[in-house]
C-alpha cells in the first residue's frame, strides 16, 4: 500500500472498514483511500520524501485535515461520516473541497473513496497529532538558549516567504552562525523544510514533525503549544538564530491570531516581510507597524522588478533586499534592539 508522509512513523494495527458509515473523522485521523479519478494531485509525497504517483484504483494511506491555500484549494474535514472526498494536499491530506483557484477549474481535485480507518490494538482510530510525542505547554518565557527568533511573514501565499527564510538562513550560516528553521503553519509537505536545510539551516522542521497534517482551523492555544513544542525540538541543536515561517498572508486566520497575541509577539526578536508587489509591501509595513512588529527588511517576489523596488524604496525607509543582497546581508541589521518591546 502507498503511504503518504503524513503517516510517517504511524504504526497501524489494522484497517477498520466497519465504521466508515458511522464514524465522523477528526483532523489527524489516519485512513486508507482508493483513487477514483485523477485531478490536481497525480502524486503524493511518500514517507521517505519522494513522490509516489497515483493511478485510478490505487489505495493509499493518508490523513484527514483542513486546507487553506489561496492559489490552490480550500477544504475541510467532513462534519459527518463521508465516503467520497478529495486530496487537498500533496502530503496526503484529505477532506472535502469547498473552493478552488480558477486555474484548477478544468482540472479539479483528485477524487478518492474511503476504504477504512487505521486503528490501534484496542480498535481506536489512530490520530497523528503528537503521536508518541509529549505535548509542551506554551510559555513566552521559555525562549530556547537565548536564541534570537526571526519571523518570516508575507502578504499572501507565494509571496516569497520560504525563499526569504531560506536565504536568511544561508546568510547566517555563511557568517558561521548556527541557525534553525521552523515552518509553524500551513499544510504538511516537506519540500520547504528540505530547501531551507539545503540553504544552511542545521535543523529544519515544520508542524508535521508534531504530527499535524495542517494547522488551518486550529485554535490559538493549540497553535501556541505547537510553537512551544517545535521550539523545544530545534533548541536541541543550540541555535543562535531561529527563523520561523508562518504560511500565507498576514490577513489569514491563524497568522492574524498569532500576530495579535501579545505573549506570542513577546518571543519575537525580528521580522522580515515578503511581498508580491509594491502596494502589498506598503500595506504590509503599515499593518505590521501598527502591531509593533516593524520589519528590519523587505524581500519577496516584488524585488525581482526594479520598478516595483523603486516604488517601495521611495516610500519607505526599511531596507529592501533582493536574494543576492539578502544572502550577503550584514549582521548589524539584526543587532538592533528587538522589534517587540
Question: Can I get a quick summary?
Answer:
With about 350 residues, the protein is an alpha/beta fold. The protein has eight helices and 17 strands.
Q: Which helices and strands appear, and what pairs or packs with what?
A:
Blueprint: E1 2-3, E2 14-16, E3 30-37, E4 43-45, E5 51-53, E6 59-64, E7 67-68, E8 73-76, E9 84-89, E10 93-100, E11 111-119, E12 148-154, H1 161-174, E13 179-183, H2 191-198, E14 203-206, H3 220-234, E15 241-245, H4 253-259, H5 262-265, E16 270-274, H6 278-290, E17 297-299, H7 306-313, H8 323-327
Parallel strand pairs: 1-6, 6-10, 12-15, 12-16, 13-14, 13-15, 16-17
Antiparallel strand pairs: 2-11, 3-6, 3-11, 4-5, 7-8, 8-10, 9-10, 9-11
Helix pairs in contact: 1-2, 6-7
Keywords:
single chain; 341 residues; alpha/beta; six-stranded parallel sheet; five-stranded mixed barrel; 8 helices; 17 strands
Describe the structure.
This protein has 341 residues and is α/β, with parallel strands linked by helices. The protein has helices at 161-174, 191-198, 220-234, 253-259, 262-265, 278-290, 306-313, 323-327, and strands spanning 2-3, 14-16, 30-37, 43-45, 51-53, 59-64, 67-68, 73-76, 84-89, 93-100, 111-119, 148-154, 179-183, 203-206, 241-245, 270-274, 297-299. A 6-stranded parallel sheet has the order 14-13-15-12-16-17, with helices on both faces. The termini are far apart. The model has no long low-confidence stretch (mean pLDDT 95).
